[in-house]
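Hey L., structure's done. Input below.
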Amino acid sequence: MPGLRILSRWLLLGEWRAHPVRALVAIAAIAVGVAMGFAIHLINAAAFNEFSAAVKSLSGQADIQVAGREPLFDEAVYPRLANHPSVAVASPVLEVAAGLAGQEGALRIIGIDAFRAGFIAPDLVGVAEEGRLTDVLADDAVFLSPAAQAWLGVQTGDTLRLRAGTGEVALRVAGPIQRARPGQRLAVMDIGALQWRFQRLGQLTRVDLKLRDGVDRAAFQKGLAAELERDYPGRFTVGQPNDADQASRTDNMSRAYRVNLTVLALVALFTGAFLVFSTQALSVMRRRSQFALLRVLGLERGQLLRQVLLEGGSLGLAGALLGVAGGYAFAAAALHYFGGDLGAGYFPGIRPQIQFTPLAAAVFFALGLGVALLGCAAPAWEAARARPAVAIKSGADEGALARLARVWPSLLCLLLAAAFAFAPPVFELPLFGYFAIALLLVGGIGLMPRFAALVFRALERGVLRLRRAPPVLTLSLARLANAPGQAAIALGGVLASFSLMVAMGIMVASFRVSVDDWMGHILPADLYVRTADGGNTGFLSPQQQAALAAAPGVAQAQFLRTRRVSLDASRPPVVVIARDIDLRDPGRLLYLVGATAAVPAGARPAWVSEAMLDLYGVRVGEVLRLPLGGAPAEFFVAGVWRDYANQSGSVVMRLSDYRALTGEGEVSDAALWAARGASLDQLEQGLRALPFGASLRTMRPGDIRAMSLKIFDRSFAVTYLLEAIAIAIGLSGVAASFSAQTLARAREFGMLRHVGVTRGQVYRLLAFEGGLLASLGVASGFALGLVISLILVFVVNPQSFHWTMQLHLPWPLLGSVAAVLVAASVATALVSGRYALSGGPVRAVREDW
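Output:
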């Protein structure tokens, strides 16, 4: 046993010393995959937990919450709740997102009754300065959390200016909030003052209830929900602050985004598994005679199998350890500099803290080690089962790879991939789509030995028909055609890296181009106007709308109003958009997709986004009920439109129908068309000359598109990073594979030198082989990547985010990466050839004498 341990250690360390770069590339690939996956998990877990904790902190000790299906409801229901015999304390709450005067962003303000909230949510009560205790009831006082003070750059005693309609509300910063979570941007003021200052008189957002001792919460919740539904149908939801619906709603906000990022991180891990396979396969091929000699000397088959697995597992062990450490460091840095949403905007206004989770670390560590062992399983099995009498002979390398040419396992993978690609989502996630992509990669790589042999043999026959065929090219094709197993190992690296890069590049480019085209369609006006760059407290009154329409240089004005309504307590709210839609041509303002239906006489038409079809089962031609104006309203679904702005679903209706149902005359946005001969500069000057012109924010369609694409690129920053890492790892793997194969052929080159082939011809031979292999790998990788991109674009994306897109191929990106791959392969072959020929022909072939 001691002798076996010494032998095992000698073989392992000797292989690492002989080929350190190849081992380091495999370790780096596994480390990057583990690090990115673990970091994304830590970031999202921290953000999700902090966001959930922040939501719970606002509820305090409330047992039951009564909220409206619309953002606001009439406070007339409050006395009924407060006087209920089972209720000890009822605390009314009003929330607004107040736009900041003169700058972007919005401040979340919670209006409370300080005396009642003290019994339910004491952390929300403001801390007034000594001698000014009445500030908690003052109509001009606001209390800010530390994060909000730092964000706004104000201190106690400063004045804060917020937007209310087209006017400003000046509030005095009276002090801090009793307790606020780190990074939580929050303000609190008296509920009456908030209603008055921001024109929300008689309106509430929710009512928090503290029940009397001994009251069963579940029974009370069920009974109260039934009472409110009977007396106020479709107006209220009754739930517990910490119930499953709220957790599910918070989780649904970002689940698809988190899962997709994690899967993208595992792409690097898949590449690492293949690099371990390539490394171990080439190592086993090069040492077949050494392993055969050890078998002859008494080493058992199982011991040799364990040795090769140990070598591959050591790569996985090192990579997984580095990955866990690197993932934690990356997550800490990302949370510090970018926040918890990685640019996607799912968790605004919070500052989560990184927490190391041993269970998740163990899972990702096991995943890294597992893919390494999986990658070296086939080479280890081949090394153990090889016959010593055959393996000990030189030149039997290709025979060891003969099993790679089996076609039926790869065809089975491709058939299963085709079947899974059309499978429905599981838990609203495209799990079968991801599985189909993995099977496509495995099947595509598995077909490379047979495909390479067919292609190079066909090329060889074509070249031989030429009268003056270059001898070096003929020799290169003959070698590639008769050694498909070794060619496939090099081709697999190119195929894996380039196909994934092609798929990701096409998917992101398709999404970006689709978003740009979509914005070009839904932004037909010359100028867009609103009163604030954020929040829901800015609006235009009917008189101001008339003034905008009559402003100098305005040929036409259209207006828009948005609000959120809840259709399902376990899902985020649906956005209702009221616009000046022409029933004769709704596609003028909406990007319609799919079939449409004629609107029956007297019906209210509505157009739903694609997400409504998946999440709520809405269908064209059916009736949709929405809570508007304090009661359910019926709409006829006339069509489906593409909406990239609202992942949780949206409904577009005519502004006239919205006003008739709600009685609201205010709007949030205006779209203006310039009169003939009037420039946009003149139009903007005319708007600024209006009495309320100083409060208007104007944007041109090009500016909106540029800003939106900037947000898009920020949201996909992590995707771009993962794509770049996959390309870098792929290039490193290609270089490692080519260099290993070139160095292993030193005896072959020595024999060629003996029969008269010059050093320059050997270099040209290697250049031809590297270029041909890389070109075939790029062509195959493009075909496979295109198929994978079709699954990403037409299966994974719609099942994840519930919207469709058009296919777009980024030819400049694909062409440049393909050229780099081919050039890198040729350069690697030449550099490795120079090293392989440095020992002289006699020394190279001495083992065969």
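The two ends are 36 Å apart (CA to CA). DSSP finds 28 helices and 21 strands in the chain.

-- N.
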